[in-house]
Every structure is written in C-alpha cells, then in structure tokens.
Design goal:
Strand content: 15-25%
Helix content: 25-40%
Structural class: alpha/beta
Number of helices: 16
Largest sheet: 7 strands, mixed
Bound molecules: nicotinamide-adenine-dinucleotide
Strand order of the largest sheet: 15-16-17-14-13-18-19
Length: 491
C-alpha cells in the first residue's frame, strides 16, 4: 500500500499541447517523471525533439499571423486574462496537491501558488487596458507616435522551482501583449504545466496561442532557442544554462530576458531588530526548501552580535520540521530530484571542511515510513564561512546557509559584493541612512530593507552580474514582448 499522498486522478502520461490538441512526440520519445519522496517514476512524459518544437512553433506562428489574438482590443484580451485567473483559482487545491507531489514543496507553501499565478494574469490584464504610448509633436513640422506591436512567437523556458507560478510570470505578460507562445517547462516537474491547456481552453484563449512542449533542455529547449521563427526567449534557470542560451540566441539575434541564479547576502547589523532578522533570514533560506532563486544563502553578521546570532539561529534551524511535504506541519519537504539532492549533499560535505557546522549536516532522522529513500536534507547551517569558500561563492539551491562575521560597513559591503551573482540583498539595521546607502552600493537587482522577500508586480524584477539580463515587472515586461515602432508624419 502507498505510504504517501498521491493526488486523485494523477495522470500516468503527460503529453505536449500543440495547436489545441494533446499529442505525443512525433518519434514517440518519452522520459520518466519521479516523485521526490520515494524517487520512483509515477508517470512518463512526451520528450520533445526538434520536430515537435517545429510543430509547436508552426501552430503558434499560424495563430499569430492568422488568428484573432494579436489583433484583439486590449479590453477583449483582458477579459480572457481575467477568466484565466478565475480558472487558475478554481484549480487552487488541485494545483497545490500537484506541486507538492511533483516538487516536494510543503503543502502549506504550495497553497499560495495559485493565487500568485492568478494575480499575474489580473495584473497584466489591467496593465494592457491602462497602457498608453507617447505621441510627440514638433510644432508645424512633424508628429511622431509609438505603434506598439506584439513581437510574435515567444519561447518561454522555465525551471522546476515553484514551476506553475514561474510559468505564469512569463505566460501572463507574453499573452497579454498579444504574442503567441511555446512553453518548455522543466523536465523534473512537468505535472502542473499540464493544467494550463484546460485552463486556457476554459477561459476562451484562441487555439494555437498557447503551446506546450515537454522534454529535456538539450533537445526541446535547445530547438526552441534556435528556431528562426521565435524572435525572443524568456528564460529562467541556472546562470550556466543562461550563458549557453545567450550564445545560441546570438546566431539569430534574438531578444532575451534572463532570470538566473543567485547567492544573495542577508546583512545583519548590530543595531537591527534581532528577532525580526532571525525570523526573516530563516524564512529567506529555508522556505520553499531553499530552492528559491532569491534565497538569502549568505548571512553576514556584525561581530558584536555574531555569537548570539549564530547560537540563536542554529537553535531555531534545528526546530524546523522536515518531512512529508503533504503534512501541514512540514516546513521543509523533499528536494525536487535525486540529481539535485546529490548536488546539495555534495555542498553539505564540502561545507564541513569550509565552515563550522552548527545545525543539520546530512539527512534528517525519523523520515516518514515509506519515504526513507526520499530526497530529504536537514536544514544545515555553517558558521565562520570564509569569503573564498565554495559554499560562500556557489549557488547551492537547497536548505543550506553560511554565516560570516564582519566588523565595519565597508567590510559588509565588500563581502556582500564578493560573488559573481547579483540577484537580491537583504539588509537589517535600524539606521535609516546606513540602510539606504547600503542599498545603493550593493550589487543586487533587488534589495529588501528590514523586510521579507515580498513582491510588488509593478517593480523591476531581475538580477545584475551573473544573475540576469534585463528586468521584468510592470510595463518592462510588456516592453519586452512588444516592438515599439516609431512612426513619423510630416505635418
Ligand atoms: P536549469 O538551467 O537547469 O533549467 C532551466 C530550464 O532550462 C529547464 O526547462 C531546462 O530544461 C532548460 N534548459 C536546460 N538546458 C537548456 C539548453 N541548452 N537550451 C535550452 N533550454 C535548456 O535550471 P533549473 O535547475 O531548472 O532551475 C534552478 C535555477 O534557476 C537556479 O539557478 C535558480 O537560481 C534559477 N532561478 C532563477 C530565478 C530568477 O528569477 N532569477 C527564478 C527561479 C529559478
């Protein structure tokens, strides 16, 4: 008998969705999809090859050139986007169960994902209705105006952490802008993406606007990146994959948006509200199983409070409940896949010679019955981590954090900036001037001052250095998916 939760009506096979139809790969290729608590295959998925991507791009291109979607009035498109949001919310419970089952995310954290995804659709629906573009008059001589046009078929390539929500972050603005799309979801977690087809059909999105090709990055993802009829790629994933895609996009001079990896610092000054800083820095690296691009995975603490901080932080980390992702008491579930588990565990071992282990350091004890082979890692904390340590420099993307002391503001800034990444930074201090000065000097695309990682969909989202290229959010996303043609008229 199964000892772990399995969603009702779990599909045993996942297909592509091309031109309004569920289809298998033309050559019949498939791959196995594992659940992370037993690491056994629960389904097969169609493994897209170049021919399947060609078919999906052809369907999307046909819907772009001949279909109604790019030519519909913003208000009409917005009505469909609102209907999509409602259809997403209607799937809230099922989506949470699917995400938990497929990714190992704790169910209490998976529950918010549908609302966030729905909000992405409502937000971009509102934005396109309110959108206006500039007209510039040169008196007596010329009138110049902006003619905004959707670019065409958008290629969307997404990672396995909070997969459905991150897919919505690309689907909502691209579709709102009037583009048609081909989505290539992550191969570790294709389950929730299978919900999109039904959601879009129900909401009345015209056939061919949304297309989905499952499969490996090197096959399906690569074919999408190299396809000449796909003028832009929106990618979220590892920095090294981003570099490869960047090179491949260059061939066709494609537009690119890249949301990449991170090794974000959380800086805690001695004058900070220590209770709030400890709560938030625990949340920052142990929520979402630590599989969070903006995780505050390097905590820099001012020497005056360093020992107290380390002691209190480690004590709290030890109380985090690791276990069955479907149990509402669980705070850290199973990591997504055995390959990723091996990577995280290798850093846990490296950390033992690079820092002082103060919590975790391996598999947790007392794993749920039947889940002894699951990809579980105890929340792990290393203190006294030197800036040249690999666990200080490299993205681990799991429930592992390093703590490093500093003395002065200058030293804190130098340590914060001492990585190739620049996604997020978190600063804890009650000195307003210091907080703002630090925010302006730190090399990070996003900074939270005395704050959790909360999102405002209007503000820029993205990283600097190896963490990304381009910023999305608000009208920046619409700009990315549209051409702004300048039309000049002589008066
Ligand atoms: P990944 O780079 O391994 O894969 C991401 C996607 O790219 C997958 O769909 C994969 O199949 C595809 N892919 C792989 N090789 C490809 C190729 N040659 N051509 C085209 N597509 C290819 O990343 P991952 O392990 O799925 O995700 C974790 C990473 O994503 C972490 O580094 C994390 O920081 C990053 N991430 C960044 C953000 C952000 O907003 N900055 C958000 C979430 C995750």
């Amino acid at each position: 008998m199964t000892k772990h939760f399995v969603p009702d009506n779990l599909p045993s096979h996942l297909q592509h969705y091309i031109g309004g139809k569920f289809v298998d790969s033309l050559g019949g290729e498939t791959f196995e999809v594992l659940d992370p608590v037993t690491n056994t295959a629960y389904a097969t998925a169609a493994a897209g090859q170049k021919a399947d991507v060609d078919a999906a791009v052809a369907a999307a291109r046909d819907a772009f050139v001949n279909g109604p979607w790019p030519r519909m009035k913003p208000r009409e498109r917005a009505k469909v986007l609102y209907a999509i949001a409602d259809a997403v919310v209607a799937q809230e419970d099922r989506l949470a169960e699917m995400e938990t089952f497929d990714t190992g995310l704790p169910i209490t954290q998976a529950r918010g994902q549908a609302q966030r995804a729905a909000e992405n659709f409502r937000f971009f629906a509102d934005l396109i209705v309110a959108q206006h573009d500039t007209a510039l008059k040169v008196p007596g001589s010329q009138l110049n105006y902006v003619n905004r046009k959707p670019i065409g078929v958008a290629g969307l390539i997404t990672p396995w952490n909070t997969p459905f929500m991150l897919e919505s972050w690309k689907l909502a603005p691209s579709i709102a802008s009037g583009c048609t799309v081909v989505l290539k979801p992550a191969e570790f977690t294709p389950l929730s993406a299978s919900l999109w087809a039904e959601i879009f059909e129900q909401a009345g999105l015209p056939e061919g606007v949304f297309n989905l090709v499952n499969g490996m990055g090197e096959d399906a993802g690569d074919a999408l990146v190299k396809h000449p009829d796909v003028p832009l790629i929106s990618f979220t994933g590892e920095s090294s994959t981003g570099q490869l895609i960047f090179r491949n996009c260059a061939e066709n001079l494609k537009g690119m948006s890249m949301e990449l990896g991170g090794k974000s610092p959380a800086i805690v000054f001695a004058d900070a509200d220590l209770d709030a800083a400890i709560d938030s820095t625990l949340f920052g690296v142990f929520s979402l199983n630590g599989e969070r691009c903006t995780a505050g995975s390097r905590i820099l603490v001012q020497r005056d409070i360093y020992d107290t901080f380390v002691e209190r932080y480690a004590a709290r980390a030890k109380t985090i409940v690791v276990g069955d992702p479907h149990d509402p008491k669980t705070q850290v579930g199973a990591l997504v896949h055995p390959e990723h588990y091996d990577k995280v565990m290798s850093y846990v071992e490296i950390g033992k010679s690079e820092g002082r282990l103060v919590a975790g350091g391996g598999r947790p004890e007392n794993l749920p019955e039947g889940q002894e082979k699951g990809s579980y890692v105890a929340p792990t904390v290393f203190a006294d981590v030197a800036p040249d340590a690999r666990i200080f420099q490299e993205e681990i993307f799991g429930p592992v954090v390093g703590i490093t002391p500093f003395d002065t503001d200058e030293e804190a800034l130098a340590l914060a900036n001492n990585t190739k990444y620049g996604l997020a930074a978190y600063v804890w201090t009650n000195d307003l001037k210091r907080a703002h000065n630090f925010a302006q000097s730190v090399e990070a695309g996003m900074v939270w001052l005395n704050s959790h990682n909360v999102r405002d969909l209007r503000s820029p989202f993205g990283g600097v250095k190896a963490s990304g290229l381009g910023h999305e959010g608000g009208y920046r996303s619409i700009d990315f998916y549209t051409d702004q043609q300048a039309v000049h008229i002589t008066l």
